[in-house]
Specification:
This protein is of the alpha/beta class and about 500 residues long. It is about 30% helix and about 15% strand. The chain has 14 helices and 20 strands. A hairpin with a 2-residue loop joins strand 13 and strand 14.
Length: about 500
């Protein structure tokens, strides 16, 4: 690593200035931890909501739930906010708490390595070396796009881009466009681009369950109501309770098989053509893949300039795309709606233990952590939105804030007890993960009959959380020191 004279030592170094990193920064300041830095690979904050700017990009969680509990917003313009409004909210919240002053932009982490002889982390970016007593990975998993290894794709003669790297300078008007993948992003941008295109072809490997989306513009009277004392918090709690009730179905799939009748009715009303409807009808249980919501996706597929190929993409020959079933189409532009690396987060390639082994090597047989947050072999390190904390039924803010509580509790304990080093015990992590995997066996992700990003290359569910978010909040409420190896500091720290 690059050596620098007088490199300062931070108490905490945070990787990523998205919702997690900003939220943690705010809570650290409130807890009296001012000696921290946030490293952001891009030139701006915002994470997922900065990167994903495709047409129609919006949240599929109600706006009232998609915010920090300590910085609720009463004046959302829609029941389900769009990308630009969410990004504005994140920026405004960060500014209000003076977080940008702690962010170092254009600082992509190349290597973060634990130094056992110093009880410190060394973090190398392209041009800087940072040192810190603790490190928190807040890099998320919806930002590194998957570019599928399809023969001939790299030689495609037309325009090619991923939905999370949308080329706004490229005009789709009058073009023949192919969309590869029909997941959460595609069902939002397909209705937006269809009217512009001469012809639109969708390569759908697996049909999705799509439920109606109860979205609407929020009138002024409703906004004023939420400005009254306690009303917004009460509405938020009602929404949380409703989604948590829905979440019971993920642990008892028979319930979801009843709810999926709504999805079938939604499909039947919108798609009259029996052949097309058959292509769009899933053969797995609702919830096995991410549950999608849209009111205009199905009507778009009825349009005369749209074809749905019920096949994955096999190869590309010049401007011709060839499906696994032999279907062919000539196109001018290809848009990849092929998702992100979830079970193999890219940050794992950049985090190393004292022996020089990367986290991705440590996770060769599957991602594993203790309570999704700490990892044996990586002392003084934390991960937000780590292994087995994925939920399919509620807001990511619930998960993020639960983990932030745990991290701040841990750092507070380290400060109060003057601890130099904490590391979760190997047997504790193993026991916890045995329980996780046992209780995942009956969930819809494991039994629903689909292939999804919840299951990794080994067939292990290293993403899903098997219990309620109430249980998650209980598990992550306070630092449980008995499950860790604690090393007192030789001199005062923090």
């Amino acid at each position: 690593m690059t050596q620098q004279a007088n490199t300062p030592i931070y108490d905490t170094l945070i990787v990523g200035a998205g919702i997690s990193g900003i939220g943690l920064g705010i809570r650290l300041k409130e807890a009296g931890f001012d000696n921290f830095v946030i490293l952001e690979k891009a030139a701006d904050l915002g994470g997922t909501w900065r990167d994903n700017t495709y047409p129609g990009c919006a949240c599929d969680v109600p706006s009232a739930l998609y915010s920090y509990s300590f910085a609720q917003k009463p004046d959302w313009t829609r029941a389900f906010a769009g990308q630009a409004e969410i990004l504005d909210y994140v920026r405004d919240t960060a500014e209000r708490y003076d977080i940008p002053a702690s962010i170092r932009f254009n600082q992509a982490v190349e290597r973060a390595q634990w130094r056992e002889n110093q009880n410190l982390w060394e973090v190398q970016t392209g041009d800087q070396l940072y040192r810190a007593r603790t490190v928190v990975a807040c890099s998320g998993y919806l930002h590194e796009p998957i570019i599928p290894a399809i023969p001939g794709l790299e030689n495609f003669a037309g325009k090619l881009f991923h939905s999370s790297r949308w080329d706004h300078d490229h005009d789709l008007t009058g073009e023949r466009v192919a969309v590869v993948g029909t997941g959460a992003s595609a069902i939002q941008f397909v209705p937006e681009i269809q009217p512009k295109t001469q012809h639109l072809t969708l390569f759908q490997r697996t049909p999705q369950w799509v439920l109606p989306k109860p979205d609407h513009s929020i009138p002024k009277i409703e906004e004023n109501f939420f400005r009254l004392p306690f009303t917004l918090s009460a509405w938020r709690k009602m929404l949380y309770g409703g989604f948590e009730t829905f979440g019971i179905g993920f642990r008892r799939p028979a319930i979801l098989r009843q709810i999926q009748k709504l999805g079938l009715a939604h499909l039947k009303v919108a798609i009259k053509d029996a052949t097309l409807r058959a292509k769009l009808t899933p053969d797995y249980t609702l919830g096995c893949k991410r549950v999608l919501m849209s009111n205009n996706y199905y009507p778009t597929l009825n349009q005369p300039n749209v074809d749905v190929f019920h096949t994955g993409l096999k190869e590309v020959r010049g401007n011709t795309l060839v499906g696994q079933d032999g279907s062919e189409c000539e196109v001018d532009t290809v848009i990849l709606g092929t998702g992100f690396f979830v079970t193999e987060p890219p940050i794992a390639n950049h985090i190393f233990n004292d022996a020089g082994e990367s986290l991705s090597q440590m996770w060769e047989d599957g991602m594993q952590a203790y309570r999704g947050t700490t990892i044996n072999g990586l002392p003084n390190a934390f991960m937000v939105l780590g292994p087995n904390l994925g939920i399919g039924h509620n807001s990511a803010f619930i998960v993020i804030e639960a983990q932030i509580n745990y991290i701040v509790s841990t750092l507070t304990t380290m400060r109060e007890q003057q601890l130099d080093r904490i590391e979760v015990k190997a047997e504790v992590q193993q026991q916890y993960n045995r329980k996780v995997q046992k209780d995942l066996q009956g969930t819809v992700w494991n039994t629903g009959g689909c292939s999804s990003y919840y299951l990794d290359k080994n067939g292990l569910n290293s993403v899903g959380f098997p219990w309620s978010t109430l249980e998650m909040q209980r598990l992550l409420k306070t630092f449980d020191a008995d499950n860790y190896t604690l090393t007192p500091a030789a001199q005062e720290v923090f």
